[in-house]
Amino acid sequence: MTAYVVTSACAGCGACLLTCPEHAIRPGPRVSLIVLDQRCTRCGECAEVCPVDAVVEVRA
After folding, report:
1. Considering the entire predicted model, what is its pTM?
2. 19-41 burial, b if ≥16 CB within 10 A, otherwise e?
3. Rounded to an integer, what distance in angstroms lies between the CA atom of residue 6 and that of residue 25?
4. Tens digit of pLDDT at every position of the chain (60 positions)
5. Residues 6+ apart with CB under 8 A from 5
6. Do the beta carbons of residue 35 and residue 3 sit within 8 Å?
7. Which of 13, 43, 53, 57 gives the lowest tally of CB atoms within 10 Å of its CB?
């Protein structure tokens, strides 16, 4: 199974947050943004709009 994560390369622009159709990306307590796996449908739109390639798909 795959999942999306926001890496430390995140610049905090919020493009992924605004683009996610499932509202699965939220501000995190220790990192700038987190992907809520239970809401994520793995459409990949967040990764496509990230200007610094900080949203990546990983194997879980």
Report:
1. 0.87
2. bbeeebbeeeeeebbebeeeebe
3. 9
4. 889 999 999 999 999 999 999 999 999 888 789 999 999 999 999 999 999 999 999 986
5. 34, 35, 55, 56, 58
6. yes
7. 53
